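Query structure, 484 tokens:
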């Protein structure tokens, strides 16, 4: 006998706005163990809570009005809020269902919506689908995906499995799955059931379910088909999101990894890491501009906000800076002109920016900041120092007021410019975040590329909540002339 044919017993209880009993019928009292008399005005007993639901669940339904179901072995109790005028909570009504012994009770189709497609990750969705099907209607379930638009062009790949997976090894099960994806419809064959994952009229894969003894029913087919449809759209969405993200990141990488070349007397390493979640692209950027007399202007910027609009503004800032920097002005005057040029375009978002003009011949670097975090200098022995640079307003405000500060930069020193994603952490003061960077000690004798990678690894930049861009620079020592 299938679970749909198993007789069930229902009990009903009414609670007031304080979750105390107003009424409970005989079936409810029998299933919960509540006494036959004296219930009115009492809360749900501790023993009954194991069956009917804990106090926290009842309080939650009273608070937000969303029905909730508490499941216990062989029983399910669903509570719904009773409301009066102006949506005032009057109390709760609970319906307790006891299923007679038989095959495991099916989960409602609507539960699939809560359990499948909770992330933008295709493999996670497949795991959720396999787990749901193996729990709701089968002893085992597996999900196979195809990477090719035409399922016949590439073999299916087992992506997730749950339950008694040995049941899925039978060649007959594989034949059912292949037939379902070939015909584009659910296939029911004795103890195996397969439903294709179809989105935008394209088969993405198949979910295969198996039972050890009892046969599947037509109702099982509908449940599997509903779950597969939900999963198919989630997988398709995840794949499209991943492809769009790859395109956006590659575009931004192309912009950022092609800065102007510094003079040969300067060693340079740049890195860009997009945030793991959120918008596809952001406004972090860096640039280098060759100046006269062997000097190089290093630029690190961060357009406020995220998304494509910030990336577009980032490119505008970058182009404008190249034009302004060509005049070979001191860094603070470059910022002043850039601020005036950008502020005339009202649609541009403000941006933080840090300029560092490196003069290798004199061993001097000059800084100017527009709302940007300070740079760091790592000495040859690994000791780090945050450079105290006067901070002016962000670019694009039209306020001006930028200063310049200079300091020595020895050939063994490494200058590090970075955006806030490298150091900032949610709920943490920025001084604490910067102090973490200042405590970092790179390996002595490492190259600029090795230092950049060490900084990213030690500060766990791969899991940063914001995009990370950084630039490491070091004066290249001139080789001594060969003795005559």
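Result returned for the query:
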């Amino acid at each position: 006998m299938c679970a749909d044919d198993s007789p069930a017993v229902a009990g009903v209880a009414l609670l007031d706005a304080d979750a105390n009993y107003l009424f409970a019928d005989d079936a409810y009292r029998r299933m919960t163990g509540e006494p036959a008399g004296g219930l009115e005005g009492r809360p749900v007993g501790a023993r009954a809570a194991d069956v009917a639901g804990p106090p926290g669940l009842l309080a939650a339904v009273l608070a937000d009005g969303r029905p909730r179901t508490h499941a216990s072995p062989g029983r399910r109790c669903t509570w719904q809020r009773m409301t009066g005028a102006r949506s005032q909570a009057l109390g709760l009504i609970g319906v307790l269902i006891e299923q007679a012994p038989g095959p495991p009770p099916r989960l409602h189709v609507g539960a699939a919506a809560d359990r499948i497609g909770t992330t933008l990750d295709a493999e996670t969705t497949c795991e959720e689908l396999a787990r749901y099907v193996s729990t709701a209607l089968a002893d085992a379930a597996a999900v196979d995906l195809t990477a090719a638009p035409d399922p016949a062009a590439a073999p299916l790949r087992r992506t997730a499995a749950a339950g008694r997976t040995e049941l899925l090894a039978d060649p007959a099960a594989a034949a059912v799955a292949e037939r379902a994806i070939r015909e584009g419809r659910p296939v029911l064959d004795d103890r195996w059931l397969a439903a294709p994952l179809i989105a935008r009229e394209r088969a993405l894969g198949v979910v295969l379910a198996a039972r050890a003894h009892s046969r599947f029913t037509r109702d099982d087919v509908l449940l599997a088909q509903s779950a597969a449809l939900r999963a198919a759209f989630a997988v398709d969405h995840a794949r499209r999101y991943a492809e769009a993200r790859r395109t956006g990141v590659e575009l931004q990488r192309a912009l950022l990894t092609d800065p102007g070349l510094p003079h040969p007397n300067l060693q340079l390493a740049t890195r860009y890491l997009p945030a793991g979640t959120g918008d596809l692209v952001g406004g972090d950027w860096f640039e280098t501009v060759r100046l006269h007399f062997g000097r190089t202007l290093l630029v690190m910027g961060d357009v406020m906000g995220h998304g494509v609009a910030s990336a577009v503004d980032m490119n505008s800032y970058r182009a404008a800076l190249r034009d302004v920097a060509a005049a070979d002005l001191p860094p603070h005057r470059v910022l002043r002109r850039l601020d005036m040029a950008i502020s005339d375009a009202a649609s541009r978002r403000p941006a933080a920016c840090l300029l560092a003009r490196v003069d290798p011949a004199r061993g001097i670097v000059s800084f100017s900041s527009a709302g940007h975090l300070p740079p760091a200098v790592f000495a040859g022995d690994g000791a780090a120092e945050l450079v105290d640079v006067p901070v002016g307003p962000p670019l694009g405000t039209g306020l001006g007021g930028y200063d310049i500060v200079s300091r020595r930069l020895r050939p063994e020193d490494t200058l590090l410019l970075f955006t806030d994603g490298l150091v900032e952490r949610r709920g943490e003061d920025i001084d604490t975040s910067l102090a973490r960077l200042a405590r970092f000690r790179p390996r002595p004798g490492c190259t600029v590329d090795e230092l950049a990678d060490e900084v990213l690894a030690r500060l766990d930049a791969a899991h940063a909540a914001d995009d990370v861009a950084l630039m490491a620079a070091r004066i290249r020592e001139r080789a001594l002339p060969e003795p005559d």
